[in-house]
Amino acid sequence: MSQAFNPPFYLRNAFVQTMLASNKLGTKRNNPMLNAAREVLLNPIPNVALQGFYSPHAQAKGVVMLLHGWEGSVNSAYVLRTGKFLYEHGYSVFRLNYRDHGNTHHLNTGLFYAILLDEVFASVQAVAGYETSKPFHLLGFSMGGNFALRVARKCAAQPIPNLKHIFSISPVLDPEKSTYAIDQHPMLQKHFRRGWSRSLLKKQSLYPHLYDFDEGFKLETITAMTEWMLQHYSEYPVMRDYFRQYTLLGDALTTLNVPTTVITAQDDPIIPVEDFYDLKLSPTTELIVHPHGGHNGFFETLSGRVWYQKKILSTLMM
Predict the structure, then answer these.
(1) Is residue 4 part of a domain?
(2) Domain that holds residue 180
(3) Residue 197 domain-assigned?
């Protein structure tokens, strides 16, 4: 297929694309993936439970596992939209909630941190084992794109036999820069701060003997909240040390041996595009940078046709 993504002029604004990515209009209506979905509780590592939803296809060509972004969930619009597309084209779909995402705050006493790769990787291993005779694929968005790339890197030492391709849409490469970028845009800052505060409030209400976030709620920026949370509820009192644990810059992806496709946009308001140009990639990794697309967007029409879905499908059918 052509690599070109040329949205009409009224869809070239980065914030329009970014907002459309979170617009749920039409994502649940006539969605056969949701009709086929069944809840699954995974225990990927000791004392951790993660929720997922598995939609097996009767004539499955393969299985695709979807990883949402920070403060997203299995019901994020971009997950539902893409899951529906893949299911309608003959693929079983598994959607994973990280801990403290969706309605899962009760499943674990510990808090979510983006550095918790082991439990996500073990979940990927488990889902890949559902249909071992079929090709398995992993697709992540934003922070989920970062997780997907770290899974790919971990596969160099711990291969998943039927994992055939990894897709990473608008992945976070430098979480420190992305956190600052969110705080530069009042609309984005409000969106993420509200979602994160709501999530933390749920956790506090479930485990009041463990957590008191009231002082953190008074802080106005994502950066300040992150710093406060790390100082009070993590082993990383210095925020930069925490961010470095899942930063993917420079030669971080040179060891990837699973075929991987990374898709991003020059106008992404959250992920600085310069970091992609500085990446040293393995021969199995394809990087696609479009002038437009925003964050998780890439809409070709207002009706919901998304460029990266076509790219994914054409790759799966190769």
Answers:
(1) no
(2) 175-246
(3) yes
Q: 54 - beta bridge partners? A: 38, 94
Q: pLDDT, tens digit, for every residue of 65-90? A: 999 999 999 999 999 999 999 999 99
What is the pLDDT confidence band of residue 26, given thresholds at 50, 70 and 90? confident
Q: Tens digits of per-residue pLDDT, 205-257?
A: 999 999 999 999 999 999 999 999 999 999 999 999 999 999 999 999 999 99
Clarify whether residues 198 and 261 are in a common domain: no
Q: Tell me: do 51 and 95 sit in the same domain.
A: yes
Query: In this structure, are 86 and 119 located in the same domain?
Result: yes
Q: How many CA atoms lie within 13 A of 305 on its CB side?
A: 7
Domain assignment present for residue 209? The answer is yes
Q: Which of 191, 225, 246 is the last residue of a domain?
A: 246
Same domain, 257 and 138: yes
* Same domain membership, residue 77 and residue 161: yes
β-pairing verdict for 260-265 and 163-169: parallel
Reported as a single tens digit per residue, the pLDDT across 157-195 is 999 999 999 999 999 999 999 999 999 999 999 999 999
CA distances from 189 to 49, 166, 181 (A): 30, 29, 9
- Per-residue pLDDT tens digits for 114-132: 999 999 999 999 999 999 9
Taking the C-alpha atoms of residue 51 and residue 123, their distance in angstroms, rounded to an integer, is: 10
Return the beta strands (E) in 163-240 as ranges: 163-169
Q: Does the pLDDT of residue 3 top 80, yes or no?
A: no
Q: How many Å apart are CA 160 and CA 135, to the nearest integer?
A: 11
Report d(CA 68, CA 52) in Å as an integer: 11
Give the neighbor-by-neighbor strand order of the sheet with 285-290.
38-42, 50-55, 92-96, 63-67, 136-141, 163-169, 260-265, 285-290
Residue recorded with tokens 């898709």? 263
CA atoms in the 13 A half-sphere facing the CB of 32: 11
Are residues 288 and 209 located together in one domain of the fold?
A: no
